[in-house]
Known about the structure:
Layout: H1 3-14, H2 18-26, H3 30-41, E1 48-52, H4 58-66, E2 72-77, H5 80-92, E3 98-102, E4 115-121, H6 129-142, E5 143-154, H7 160-173, H8 178-190, E6 194-201, E7 206-212
Parallel strand pairs: 1-2, 1-4, 2-3, 4-5
Antiparallel strand pairs: 5-7, 6-7
Helix pairs in contact: 3-4
Amino acid sequence: xxxxxxxxxYYDLFSRFYDRFVAWHSGEPTGPMRRAxxxxxxxxxxxxxxxxCCGTGAVTRxxxxxxxxxxxVVGLDSSWGMLSRGVARARQANxxxxxxxQADAAALPFKDGAFDVVxxxxxxxxxxxxxxxxxxxxxxxxxxxxxxxxxxxxxVPRRRLHRVLFSLRLTVIGAEGARAFLGGxxxxxxxxxxxxxxxxxxxxxxxxxxxQKPGPASGG
Length: 220
């Protein structure tokens, strides 16, 4: 079994308690944080939104709720276990606007300039350095000129136990270069996007990194 297949299997299994883990790890409920990401992503009206590495679809659903009624919202993940839970929860919430795609974030199956905004929650730090760089290039390709990329990530935990478990998980998933990224995310994202900035969300355990593809804004 290859590395990608192993990672996919890991996330299929992890999907069973993914949301609980994120809430415990960040010390915050997942709903409000992901809602905050979706609301920031749709402050400027969008017609086409992509939620990358969507997991169980919390941000995808929030985007479908906050974007204009006629907007196209796509959730993409490599793990069918994650996607199946996202589809089920969208049905439970009577949300029909979302579309779900199983694909690799480093090889997006979309045309150039297909989206006005791309979001990604709690996934960048888990990717190996070269894959993360390719993914960011793919995001830029899939964004229309002036389109925005918003990524939400954990701040490094302050509590010792949380920090140890956080480091252990990075080791288990083989996220080479993750620690360097956690200290230099603005610089790395800035190699691809302009106007990159970081906003730490209350109570200080999650942050949103925002960048823009050069060119005129496509929203509105």
